[in-house]
Automatic annotation (TrEMBL), chain A:
Residue ranges flagged as DNA-binding region: 130-228
Protein's name in the database: Response regulator
SUPFAM superfamilies, sorted: CheY-like (SSF52172)
Record has Phosphoprotein as a keyword: yes
The OmpR/PhoB-type domain, residue ranges: 130-228
Keyword terms of this UniProt record: DNA-binding, Phosphoprotein
Chain ranges of the Response regulatory domain: 7-121
Family annotation (Pfam families): Response_reg, Trans_reg_C
InterPro entries assigned: CheY-like_superfamily, OmpR/PhoB-type_DNA-bd, Sig_transdc_resp-reg_receiver, WalR-like, WH-like_DNA-bd_sf
Lineage of origin: Bacteria, Pseudomonadati, Pseudomonadota, Alphaproteobacteria, Sphingomonadales
From TrEMBL, chain B:
GO MF annotation, one: phosphorelay sensor kinase activity
EC number(s) given by UniProt: 2.7.13.3
Organism in which the protein naturally occurs: Alteraurantiacibacter aestuarii
Residue stretches spanning the membrane: 25-46, 163-185
Gene3D superfamilies: 1.10.287.130, Histidine kinase-like ATPase, C-terminal domain
Catalytic activity reported: ATP + protein L-histidine = ADP + protein N-phospho-L-histidine
Gene Ontology cellular-component annotations: plasma membrane
The name this protein goes by in its record: histidine kinase
InterPro entries: HATPase_C_sf (IPR036890), HATPase_dom (IPR003594), His_kinase_dom (IPR005467), HisK_dim/P_sf (IPR036097), TCS_sensor_his_kinase (IPR050428)
Pfam families: HATPase_c
Superkingdom, taxonomy of origin: Bacteria
Keywords in alphabetical order: Kinase, Membrane, Phosphoprotein, Transferase, Transmembrane, Transmembrane helix
Domain Histidine kinase: 250-454
Length: 230, 467
């Protein structure tokens, strides 16, 4: 997958919000096509291929959830990230239930948005993982549920293995706390305590025990990234 | 521990009642008709029998009066001759005449009765009796002279037959009336039941968020009025829910959007800071924005949960035991790092009808609360039991006596909570989520620390205090 240069469609009625996000994504090397109205966005999505669609939820001419439904019925399969001011856990559940691929609340962390977009595009590219995922010094044996670093077995608890596997599936990319909460612990809200950091800390200690190079690096304010361990 | 059977908590969704007031109404009407007929039958039979008796008595007495005259005017022989004549007569009512003329010593002089009954002639007694040949008669004995007793009797077989016919008519009529009551009642009740069920179904549909259609409200009667008022109440409730939702969405939108712009500007400002300048102040500003957003979300979540009490939309069968185990696993590391022992007692397969995310948040809030305030070396315990009963207890500093009644109110924090970065909304949200799931939450008295209990309203006893 290309790390940069994504072609994105952004459907948002607020010009300031659109300008901010377009500038952010442009700095990352992505090309953004902005549509102010839901109907125009639908038309554009049907005419041009996009790597992903960023969609506001409360649009003046139609609800964002309705746009998702119409995109899917019209055969547009580009992944959709809903970027909405409706950020409560219940809103996120609604969005995901309605077929949105990911849901991010405003105000957002720029790095978090980029990480989510990349993860979405990666998933949409249909990258399937084999029974053994290898990244740098790390090996993840999915069926046997075992982890290795430079051929040394690392004993992990079931949940720690889930975490490790998630990092391996997103190897080299930033994984945010919200992504971990949502995909590993199935939670659509932030518990407001350091539970994720503590669990990552435990995994990190196990992955780094006996090795000099770090296994996980902290992306400040956003999340974590698995290193190659070299 | 014995594994309890899977059970779906239905404290919110009350099943349809198996007993029908309409069936009881029909049974009552049939019973009333039967009792009425029975009373009427009794009175009629009693009156008919009395009339028969009076008629027999009058007939016998008139006959005796005539015979006394004959005896007085013409003597014993003439009397015997007349008795012989009259013995062959049958009245229009079908009553046959029976006579006996005897001496006080028992010598039979004449008549068609073979044996003197128990009636006393001296007292002129009368009554119903059965003759030696088996014939049932009404008779009176009388003393014509000191040496002559007369017995006059009438058979009443046809009177009895008439009474039996009356019984048969009554029974037939009773059967027809009961059948008619049953048929008419069943028909009327079926229609009424259908209309009442339509109203109940409308309320149930509204609970599940479906549209309500009550055509019954067109009827101009009591049930029609009930249907009309129900439609209005359901519509008003649905309208309030919609308005609440729109209002919440707009508040969130109108506050979050400018905060997003502000946050983006702070991000740009941080990016354009000269090399070596500490961005801490700007970062603090961004944290403040996040704090306001978190508080806003909590307030809206509380309002949403409170407004949806009794609403079944979005509820599903949740394995509370699995959900709690997942949370214990998540919090285990945090507890260990904080030097706190996190223990759990989770009965398997405890189920509840609920929203998984909301229930996760409810338990998560209580665990967050406990881990935040329990000092190193302390203990936090999570219990899940059938009911369902959720308990979180700790041996921390507990909650001041004065604050205990207010602890579930919005923006309430204890003195020991100062500086813990709390808006004082966690327990208010926990209460709202418990209410949403048909449960109450309470702070139970404990010797040390705080002890929170969440269970269905019906399980709270009078001595316990729930919020």
């Amino acid at each position: 997958m290309q790390d940069q240069g994504l072609k994105l469609l952004y459907i948002e009625d607020n010009a300031d919000a659109a300008a901010d996000l377009t500038a952010l994504l442009a700095r990352q090397g992505s090309q953004v096509v902005w549509e102010m109205r839901g109907a125009d966005g639908l038309r554009r999505a049907a005419l041009e291929p996009f790597d992903a669609i960023i969609l506001d939820r409360m649009l003046p001419d139609m609800d964002g959830l309705e746009i998702v439904a119409r995109l899917r019925t019209s055969g547009v399969d580009a992944p959709v990230l809903m970027l909405s001011a409706l950020g409560r856990a219940a809103n996120r559940v609604e969005g995901l239930d309605a077929g949105v691929d990911d849901y991010l609340a405003k105000p957002y962390e720029p790095d978090e948005l980029m990480a989510r977009l990349k993860a979405l595009v990666r998933r949409a590219e249909g990258r399937t993982h084999s029974a053994i995922i290898i990244y740098g010094q790390f090996e993840c044996h999915v069926k046997a549920r075992t982890a290795f670093r430079r051929n040394v077995h690392i004993p992990l608890s079931p949940k720690e293995f889930e975490l490790f596997r998630y990092f391996m599936e997103n190897a080299g990319e930033t994984v945010t706390r919200d992504m971990l909460l949502r995909d590993v612990w199935k939670m659509n809200f932030d518990p407001q305590t350091n539970v994720v950091d503590v669990n990552i800390g435990r995994l990190r200690r196990k992955l780094e025990a006996g090795f000099d190079a770090p296994a996980l690096e902290t992306i400040w304010g956003t999340g974590y990234r698995l290193t190659r361990g070299e | 521990m014995q594994e309890p059977l899977p059970k779906l908590e239905t404290t919110i969704d009350r099943p349809e009642s198996g007993r029908s007031i309409f069936t009881r109404l029909v049974r009552g009407a049939i019973g009333l008709a039967l009792v009425s007929l029975l009373v009427l039958f009794g009175v009629t039979m009693w009156e008919s029998w009395n009339a028969t008796q009076r008629s027999l008595s009058a007939t016998v007495d008139t006959d005796i009066a005539g015979l006394v005259d004959i005896y007085a005017s013409s003597g014993e022989e003439e009397l015997l001759a007349r008795l012989e004549d009259r013995s062959t007569l049958v009245s229009l009512e079908g009553r046959q005449a029976r006579y006996m003329l005897v001496r006080p010593d028992g010598t039979i002089l004449g008549g068609n009765i073979k044996q003197w009954p128990t009636l006393g002639a001296g007292l002129s007694e009368q009554g119903f009796l059965t003759l030696v040949d088996g014939t049932k008669v009404f008779a009176r004995a009388t003393r014509l002279s000191p040496d002559l007793d007369l017995l006059v009797a009438r058979t009443y077989e046809r009177d009895s037959t008439a009474l039996l016919r009356l019984v048969a008519v009554f029974l037939g009529t009773a059967a027809v009336i009961v059948l008619a009551v049953w048929l008419i009642g069943r028909n009327a009740v079926a229609k009424l039941r259908q209309r009442i069920i339509a109203i109940s179904s409308a309320f149930r549909a509204a609970e599940h968020g479906r549209d309500v259609d009550l055509p019954d409200s067109q009827f101009d009667d009591e049930v029609g009025e009930l249907a009309y008022l129900s439609t209005r109440a359901i519509g008003r409730s649905a309208g309030l829910a919609r308005t609440h939702r729109h209002m919440s969405d707009h508040i969130a939108h109108e506050i979050r959007t400018p905060l997003t712009h502000l946050d983006n500007r702070l991000v740009n400002a941080m990016r354009s800071l000269p090399e070596g300048v500490d961005p801490a102040m700007i970062e603090q500003g961004r944290q403040d924005i996040k704090s306001v957003v978190t508080m806003l979300d909590s307030l809206l979540d509380i309002a949403a949960s409170e407004s949806r009490v009794g609403d079944l939309v979005g509820l599903e069968d949740v394995d509370l035991s699995a959900l709690a185990s997942n949370l214990v696993e998540l919090y285990d590391g945090s507890a260990e790092e904080a030097g706190i022992s996190l223990r759990s007692f989770i009965e398997p397969k405890v189920h509840i009808l609920g929203e998984p995310m909301q229930l996760t948040r409810l338990i998560s809030n209580l665990l967050d609360n406990a881990l935040k305030y329990v000092p190193r070396g302390g203990q936090v315990t999570l219990s899940i039991a059938d009911g369902p009963v959720i308990e979180v207890r700790d041996d921390g500093p507990g909650i001041d006596e004065a604050l205990r009644p207010l602890v579930f109110e919005r923006f309430r924090t204890g003195h020991h909570v100062q500086g813990k970065n709390s808006h004082g909304l966690g327990l208010a949200l926990a209460r709202a989520i418990a209410m949403r799931h048909g449960m109450g939450i309470g702070l139970v008295a404990s010797q040390k620390g705080a002890h929170f209990v969440i269970k269905p309203h019906a399980m709270w006893t009078s001595g316990e205090v729930k919020a």
